Amino acid sequence: MKSISILGSTGSIGINTLNVIRLHPERFKVTALAAGSNLDLFAAQIKEFKPRLVSLEREEDALKLSSIVGPSVEVLYGAEGAESVAVYDNPDVTVSAITGAAGLLPTLAAAKAGGVVALANKESLVLAGSIVMAEAKKSGATIVPVDSEHSAIMQSLVGHRREDIKRIILTASGGPFLDRPQEDFVNITPQQALKHPNWDMGAKVTIDSATLLNKGLEVIEARWLFDLSPDEISVLVHPQSIVHSMVEYLDGSIISQMGAPDMRGPIAYALAYPERIETGVEPCDLTRGPLEFREPDMKKFPCLGLAYDALRAGGTMPAALNAADEVAVRAFLEGQVAFTAISGIIEDTLTRNAPGNGATIEEITSADRVARENARRAVKKVEL
Amino acid sequence: MKSISILGSTGSIGINTLNVIRLHPERFKVTALAAGSNLDLFAAQIKEFKPRLVSLEREEDALKLSSIVGPSVEVLYGAEGAESVAVYDNPDVTVSAITGAAGLLPTLAAAKAGGVVALANKESLVLAGSIVMAEAKKSGATIVPVDSEHSAIMQSLVGHRREDIKRIILTASGGPFLDRPQEDFVNITPQQALKHPNWDMGAKVTIDSATLLNKGLEVIEARWLFDLSPDEISVLVHPQSIVHSMVEYLDGSIISQMGAPDMRGPIAYALAYPERIETGVEPCDLTRGPLEFREPDMKKFPCLGLAYDALRAGGTMPAALNAADEVAVRAFLEGQVAFTAISGIIEDTLTRNAPGNGATIEEITSADRVARENARRAVKKVEL
Predict the structure, then answer these.
(1) Could you tell me the maximum CA-CA distance found in chain A, to the nearest angstrom?
(2) Domain count along chain B
């Protein structure tokens, strides 16, 4: 029986994690949950899975929840609450699925605790990859990625020799605007950008998929997860989202992992690692249609290039990239700026980022804060 | 430095094996070679690679060769010569690439010797899979397949748990007649059938690719190589021959191996196993065109179904299948029978095969001999 802590249980990864756990009551026990502000769903999850410790973002929600769930469950709140959930009773697996930079500290806490970190919060590695991986190495924690691409890479690496890798190839659906003419990008509405062709995800990551910035963050994440140089990480557009990613070896051999586009696949892989379990995911029918691949259009999707730039620059640059993107995407979703302004806001912010080696969490959070301010200023300049 | 014996050095696998070895003079040393009757090429190979023992099919060729290569090379001939080459000086790797049933005994000798058997001769496993695998287990030999499909399966299995396998999926190009209307099959000429869309191979295996019997033999081979039941082995037509085969796991995940269709890939994998080496194979460009998959048409290609039948029947039935096919394909290539007669000849032969558990080489070779006689009789009945 594995004990599981989930950070972000009411988000789409959290919900799907509980869907997988529900299939295997003999295998998993939920010991702690953290969520944002979706009180109703969180209360229902607590009722069903009976964790002993839970946490919400705000104190007032925590107070409300306490009166609902009664004294048998300890209710915390805020960043410290999330960190407590991350490591409560030394869980076998901590699922880190809080969206955004807020996921960093609880992920770091889990990495220090030494169990399996099922990592959906890519910002932890984008912002502080060297720190998180160093802590994991020190404690013996295993970071198992919970996005489809990195899970595919991990599954395409097991059993093969590290020194035989030529490069990894992250696949990208290309998002909803893959075939839209670039001159029409300026008219893209949030509603259009929120319709992802293959994946059902949160709003932020859906917009990031439409700009390909999401793929850029994944490139940075891969750099840390698999200890690769930027040149060893490629991106290939694959509109069908069946081949979830690939590893090319020096003999010309490519190992890939495929499956239906369903997050329960990588979630189950991380929960049961190194075993595999039933997921409830329908089998992948390869006869349904052809699998296509093309090089990404870096002109149409400049955010991908910006991410490579930030990775190559290193230090706090990826943190600034991520912060600027969070601000820009929010501004786009709120109708403040055009879709095409997102990359400019990020670029503007990156040029203002002070050099810093990003060796401490303080440096990173400071760069994050400054970048947000700069990005907000950049938003003002291009406001509609 | 690995010592290598090659059985069938003048065939297409043998030539490509030497092409790979030529790239890595610091890594491989050819110690023994066996070939059929291509004296000129064989003499040139001996001159270049300097094996200490060689063997040809016929005594008269061996005598001729002796006078060419001089006394520094020992020249043998016949089945015993090939067996000597297979095990000479306990090679690290024996490449078993003699075509047809003639490859069985030298393969068995190599399996008993305990090194790596780089197995291109699929008949060894089709005829005597249980015996060859049992001997390999006893001696500690590792059978590494040298056809693209089984190499892909092996590469998609390493590092994963045996108990997590749901099924393997062998891909098939579908051969040159995939889209030819079935009513026109009767007009297929040997010349047409010898044109394979993707692979450059010998005549027998090219015709077998056109009938899909080759895929059937691979199903039987896979049964033994990977210890699977017939129901755990599927076939999927994939005209581009880029995905060389796949393994589906119980969580819905499919691991596949891809690459350019070039035999140097699987050959190099087997030679260097468990490492990978440069192959000279051009990188696989996935942007060249879509990858398509479809279910095989068992009506148009009845030989595939016959192979599954023979595998399920077990005993000497696969040996009879293989023998009947060798006879039928030769008759087709010599213009004796129509392309469409091949499956009928095999079916006729299978119904006449006496039950036998195939536990001994004698039983198998006897079934093989009787099946050839029956197949020749069946050929006479449908002769053009």
Answers:
(1) 62
(2) 3
Structure tokens at A257: 């992992």
Picking from A247, A250, A254 by the largest number of B CB atoms within 10 A of its own CB, the best residue to mutate is A254
Whether residue A236 and residue B160 make contact (CB cut-off 8 A), yes or no, is no
Distance from CA of A198 to the nearest CA of B (A): 17
Contact (Cβ atoms closer than 8 angstroms) between residue B207 and residue B346: no
What region does A78 belong to: left with phi over 0, alpha with psi -120 to 50, or beta? left
Residues B300, B157: one domain?
Answer: yes
The minimal CB distance from A164 to the residues B157, B249, B275 is found for B275
Q: Are residues A218 and A232 in the same domain?
A: yes
- Identify the CATH number of the domain in which residue A328 sits: 1.10.1740.10
Q: Would you say A97 and A270 are in contact if contact means Cβ atoms under 8 Å apart?
A: no
CA distance B336 to B311: 28
* pLDDT for the residue numbered A199: 66
Task: Say if the Cβ atoms of B278 and A155 lie within 8 Å.
Answer: no
Of A111, A145, A179, the domain-final residue: A145
Whether B251 and B320 map to the same domain: the answer is: no
Q: What does the pLDDT look like over A282-338, one tens digit per residue?
A: 999 999 999 999 999 999 999 999 999 999 999 999 999 999 999 999 999 999 999
pLDDT of A200 strictly over 70:
no
B282 pLDDT exceeds 70?
yes
> Is B345 within 8 Å of B298 (Cβ atoms)?
no
Are A253 and B274 an interchain contact pair (Cβ–Cβ within 8 Å)?
A: no
Please say whether the dihedral angle defined by the alpha carbons of residues A266, A270, A274 and A277, taken in this order, is positive or negative: negative
Length of chain B: 384
In whole angstroms, give the CA distance from residue A88 to residue A73. 13
Domain, as residue range, for A319: 314-384
Query: Are A212 and A190 within one domain?
Result: yes
Query: A-chain residues within 8 Å CB-CB of B164?
Result: 275-276
Domain boundary among A295, A312, A329: A312
pTM: 0.95
